[in-house]
Amino acid sequence: MMISTSTVFDAWWGWPPPVLDPAGPYADSVLVLAWALIGIGVVVTAIVVGALYVAIRGPDRFKRKLGGEKAVWIGGIAFPGVVLTGLLVWGLTLTASLTEPVPDDAMRIRVTGYMWWFDVEYLDERGNVVLRDANELHLPVDQPVVLELESGDVIHSFWVPNLSGKRDMIPGRTNELVIQADRPGRFGGVCAEYCGGPHALMGFVTLAHDAAAWEEWWTARTTPIPAAAEQDVPGDLPALATPAPIADVPDGPDGRELFMASGCAACHRVAGTEANGLTGPDLTYIGSRLSLGAGILPNNRGTMIGWIGDSQSIKPGNRMPSYDMLSAEELEAIAIWLEQQR
User: Fold this and answer.
1) HSE-CB for 321 with a 13 A CA cutoff
2) How far apart are CA 23 and CA 185, in angstroms?
3) Nearest CA-CA partner of 162 in 38, 260, 17, 295
4) Which of 77, 155, 265, 284 could join 275 via S-S bond, C-beta 3.0 to 4.6 A?
5) What is the per-residue DSSP string for 123-167?
6) What is the pLDDT of residue 320?
7) Contacts for 88-95 with beta carbons within 8 Å, 24 or more apart?
């Protein structure tokens, strides 16, 4: 089951995320260094294999030279010393840009790793949270963005191969990573540090927007959501700026009521409702996300129903129980209501 569900999402995004297609300055230098290391590794391996062949099958005079003191000094000390020193200096120079200061007014986003999902908080210049999301990171193109990386439980590692190197997320510590996209697009990300059972199913999606699309997205997301008391009908679409139409909504149970009655609100927050749980991903914008289950499923009504009803089969060990006590009609009603949260 784990393989098949992941494969569905892989078909959409490519999996694992490509590491040889940099889309930003902070990934480009890492790739150049990686190719250099690979090339030098191939050359050194060829030299070692050649020397081994000579030592076993070569003429006696070459064997004697290979075992002589001169060969040891040149091949065992001088050659690796020169190559490794040169590689160290060149590598530090090449990657110096990764640690250069970014503008003080650069956008800052706090990303916190949990077993097994990512909490995303967009910060203002004073460090206050102005927008909260989960498992999806939005960036404006051509702008360096500072990520404040933290962990809420064990050591994780944040990595978007197209846009940056990787950086650990350590409990009790904030690590910073600068990330930048040079073109609009969708870029997969992963946790790159083994953190427990379904570690391999802990991913996320990064979306880079051009200036106009970014402004539209940011305006829509920061438009205040009305309080629950201001909503006319429970379960109706919250009054966001430009909600997308929801097609094929059958008559049936009230998904909002079922969501609250089933205990989902204890772990999940949905802005504008009484759901204010903080131990699970924020679901305020779940309907507009591209993935479910921290990057492992495409987001549509069918996968939403499957995730709610049997999440433990899809992602064994995750912290959300399977709600297999709900009927198919009830699961669909909750999925439809969540689909409306945009």
Assistant:
1) 9
2) 9
3) 17
4) 265
5) E-TTS-EEEEEESEEEEETTS-EEEEEEESSS-EEEE-TTT---E
6) 93
7) 90/36, 91/33, 91/36, 94/29, 94/32, 94/33, 95/29, 95/30, 95/33
